[in-house]
Design a protein that fits this description.
single chain; alpha/beta; five-stranded mixed beta sheet; 5 strands
């Protein structure tokens, strides 16, 4: 479950966007997301289970920042994605107010620190 005080949910649906988000977050303090009321979700439902277990999950566990993992294929029905873009879900009082898309670390920083 996503904490009630979250104001932004960052979602990566692809490897490339996951790399962009993780590299940005690795340069920050481990409490950066919590302080800014942000959650990061890696949507790995399309990844083959063998790759997930052998490669992806061990790698994701090494990051110092928290990462929520999505395995549900219906997730994209609720939260749409765009190719090569990070999805940003803007939340207010546990209600989705807006969904936007970014592709650079500068845009990511601006969205988190808003």
């Amino acid at each position: 479950k996503i904490p009630k005080d979250v104001k932004l949910v960052i979602i990566s649906h692809e490897k490339g966007t996951g790399v962009l988000v993780n590299e940005y977050l690795e340069a920050k303090n481990e409490d950066y997301l919590q302080k800014n009321h942000v959650v990061f979700i890696a949507d790995i439902n399309k990844m083959p289970s063998l790759i997930t277990k052998m490669v992806a999950l061990p790698k994701l566990r090494k990051y110092k920042h928290p990462i929520y993992i999505n395995y549900d294929e219906r997730f994209e029905e609720i939260v749409p994605s765009k190719e090569n873009m990070v999805t940003l879900v803007h939340v207010e009082n546990s209600i989705i107010k807006n969904i936007s898309y970014i592709s650079t670390t500068e845009e990511l920083k601006k969205a988190i620190e808003k």
